[in-house]
Design a protein that fits this description.
The structure is a single chain. This protein is mostly helical. It has one domain (2-223): Arp2/3 complex 21 kDa subunit ARPC3, CATH 1.10.1760.20. Helix content is 82%, strand content 3%. The protein is built from 9 helices and 2 strands, in the order αββαααααααα. It has helices spanning 2-28, 45-54, 57-77, 81-89, 91-119, 126-150, 154-163, 168-202, 206-223, and strands at 34-36, 39-41. The two termini are 27 Å apart.
């Protein structure tokens, strides 16, 4: 039993390390920071979705922390104009914005997938909805925290005036726009396909588990 547990732990850590490495590779290839106006379009939510779905909420939190750490580095160095401006005003809340919100994205995406799969007994849409939830949650938490903490800063107010947004809700919609839609579509398509494929290949899906359980029950009944 102890040897089996060590094997599982090693496999879990290996898979998590691989996803972290993928995040860094995507970052180096420019897929983690595509400039779109004052924001950056990032596809680093894809590894977070994959990890949260296949490995669970804790892995989602770790992958979210990596994403957030890279984002916070951009804020410190001024690579990101928006978070760099926030860092100059309030470093602590900028850390929460960049890192903590992304960790929450990973945790919530993992639990939300489990909830969806509980109702999606045939697993027809749970992987794609779980993957879609990741960029959506990222936008909600990230932009929500900006509105909550940084909305009255000069940087944001200049954007509000430039967009002509009458209220914070419309400001978020107008600022995120097409960028958020592209992120959501890509993450849902890629993340859903990858997680579903890996789940089937490794026999992680409910239907295969149920089939094995049914076979065990039949065998036990025959023995009785």
């Amino acid at each position: 039993m102890e040897k089996h547990q060590k094997t599982i732990d090693l496999r879990y850590l290996t898979q998590l390390a691989l996803l972290i490495a993928i995040q860094f590779v995507m970052r180096m290839l420019g897929l983690g920071r595509v400039p779109v106006g004052p924001l950056y379009m990032s596809f680093l939510t894809v590894p977070i979705a994959v990890g949260a779905i296949l490995l669970g909420p804790l892995a989602g939190a770790v992958l979210g922390a990596v994403f957030g750490g890279l984002s916070f580095y951009d804020a410190i160095t001024g690579v990101s104009v928006m978070t760099g401006a926030f860092f100059a005003v309030d470093p602590l809340n900028t850390f929460v914005l960049c890192v903590v919100t992304r960790m929450l994205v990973g945790v919530c995406a993992g639990w939300l997938f489990r909830l969806i799969r509980f109702f999606d007994r045939k697993e027809r849409i749970c992987y794609w909805l779980g993957a879609l939830a990741t960029p959506v949650l990222n936008t909600v938490f990230f932009m929500g925290y900006i509105v909550l903490v940084f909305y009255q800063t000069e940087f944001v107010q200049n954007l509000v005036a430039d967009k002509g947004a009458p209220n914070p809700f419309l400001f978020v919609i107008m600022l995120v726009g097409v960028q958020g839609l592209i992120e959501a579509v890509v993450c849902a398509a890629v993340g859903g396909a990858v997680t579903k494929g890996v789940s089937v290949a490794l026999g992680l899906g409910r239907r295969k588990k149920d089939a094995v359980a049914d076979a065990d029950n039949v065998s036990n009944n025959e023995l009785l």
